Amino acid sequence: MRPRRAKSKLESSFRTPLWHRIAERAIAVLALAAIAAIALIFIFIAREAVPMLWEAEFAEEVQIRDLFFAKEWKGYDEPVFVWQPVGEPAKFNVMPLFVGSLKVTLLAMLMSIPLGVGCAMFIALYAPRAVREVVKPAIELLAGIPSVVLGFFALMVIASWAQATFGFHFRLNAVVAAIGLALTIVPVIFTISEDAIQAVPNTLTEAALALGARKYQVALRIVVPAALPGIAAGVVLGFGRAIGETMIVLMASGNAAIMELFDFTTIVRTVTATIAAELGEVAQGDPHWRVLFLLGVMLFAVTFVLNILGDVIIQRLQKRLTASS
Amino acid sequence: MRHTKQDWLLAGLTGVSLAVILLLLAVLLGQIFWHGAPVISAQFLTESPGADMISGGIWPAIYGTVFMTLLMTIAGVPVGIATAIFLSEYASPRSRIAKAVRIAVNNLAGVPSIVFGLFGLGFFIIFVGGGVDALLYDDPRPVWGKPSILWASLTLAVLTLPVVIVTTEEALRTVPRELRDASLALGATRFQTVYKIVLPNAKGGILTGVILAVSRGAGEVSPIIFCGAANFLPYLPTDLRDMFMHLGYHVYALATQSPNVDAARPTLFGTVLVLLVLTFSLNLLAVIIRSRSRAALRP
């Protein structure tokens, strides 16, 4: 009988240990967590909102068309858009909230686009190295401030200052909330725009300078147009951030749902603030509860589209710049 | 190069926008430090708040914030690091699955924080917690299916996931290709390469990313409003199913729901200062580790 060959030490060390194989499997499974998270978020928010389509309890109290269209309620002379969840009957028209969100967001964008792009241009084109090395961490610092602190700052400091300076009728209003929001949006726009400006190939600027262009001409006609898709991506992502921001608008916008399109100094109530302020006081499964989750679904959908749009723009830019260099 | 008038104008305009931002930042930090610092005392940091929420200290809020942040880190960070390892070391960049994960991560980063709050309520509290209750207990009173520090932490873990993934992946990419090739050429398996070569070399960068994510999660308030933060709770959470006080939520509640905001001002500024110091010291730590690990990578 031949003796069984003993396994050499070398041979067994070539075999992958079991725990390596388990760890590799675990990594592959855990990597799917992000996909699962996105799917679960959508499913479980929708799950609380969708029963409004068939529930009798909901139909008794709210008609779905009244969520979006004006209605002539008892005591009103004309069809109106009203959000009055505790009124009798309860009125759930989401339009004043969307108008509020858009007003605050647009105002914040009007402030943060020039500020963010301006900062990025100054840092990329004019600032000496020393300034750059102070400013970039400072803006990172600003980006790291929790939004509740910015909301507190807007509520306590900016609101008083703005009322004293501009004589606003309401202490808290869309302008104050927008200033607070701008503080969170500027770092987003700045970071992406600055990256885009730095990524413009030197060959372009050098060619322009060699042809006798002035520095401002190079900046405005060569660098900014070449970086425009990147700046646009920053703006889109900043918009998404602004429309979804909660704590700042919750604390500094005054929180009254008023359907007023053009006066930017009135109190506003945004979609996000409405969810944050009202959900805690609503019973699970109540019509009001369903409408608040519906607002969440709509918010999710809007930011989802904005994010995809921002990514597409950034990818286009990368392709264009790599193709041209 | 000669600068013309237009050059000065453009530099001036863009410089002004920078000055405006820096001024706002300075005013913000200055105001909070100026009004907050006198409030800070040993008593303020170590005592429970009084019944009016204004007198006394904020110790339960500090404790709750730190406890929640720890739970969030334990739950979220390993998943994030695993995803980053998968994306950078295992998946080929053109594979469909890697693309799908990347799109999901980007979108997760853009989901509004209040939507995470709705998700925590709808998924963790009602579905998971309520499901466990229905399975285990006959009692109609909820045991797991109610707001608690566990669900708040898990919700925030999902929220910070994209930050961990993106920063860890960047850190892994800074490890030179040659190191991996050398390891593989010596006969190491891919996992051995990741475990013994890539991860140790990317340690600093990963730690930086984790700390940044943690500091972001520590300051988020809107997701935890309905997931476990308590208005006023003079005792400390001892069980995962307890509710908890949170520095940021304390600021929100005190600033908007207090009957007498003027009396609450000092407490508010003090609380905001503590919250800021907490997040900034985390950020500072991240910056220090990042600069050290960059210095270490240089040959």
Description:
- The complex is a heterodimer of chains A (325) and B (299).
- Chain A is mostly helical and 325 residues long.
- Chain A has a single domain, classed as Orthogonal Bundle (MetI-like fold), CATH 1.10.3720.
- Chain A contains 14 helices and 2 strands, in the order H-H-H-H-H-E-E-H-H-H-H-H-H-H-H-H.
- In chain A, strands 1-2 form a two-stranded antiparallel sheet.
- In chain A, helix 8 crosses helix 9.
- Chain A starts with 8 loop residues before the first helix and ends with a helix.
- In chain A, 45% of the residues are buried.
- Chain B has helices at 5-36, 42-46, 59-90, 96-110, 113-136, 149-173, 177-185, 190-219, 247-257, 261-297.
- Chain B is an all-alpha fold.
- Chain B starts with a helix and ends with a helix.
- Chain B is globular and about 70 Å long.
- The model of chain B has no long low-confidence stretch (mean pLDDT 88).
- Chain B has a domain at 62-247: Orthogonal Bundle (MetI-like fold).
- Classes of the chains: A mainly alpha (325), B mainly alpha (299).
- Chains A and B meet through helix 2, helix 3, helix 6, helix 7 and helix 8 of A and helix 1, helix 3, helix 4, helix 5 and helix 6 of B.
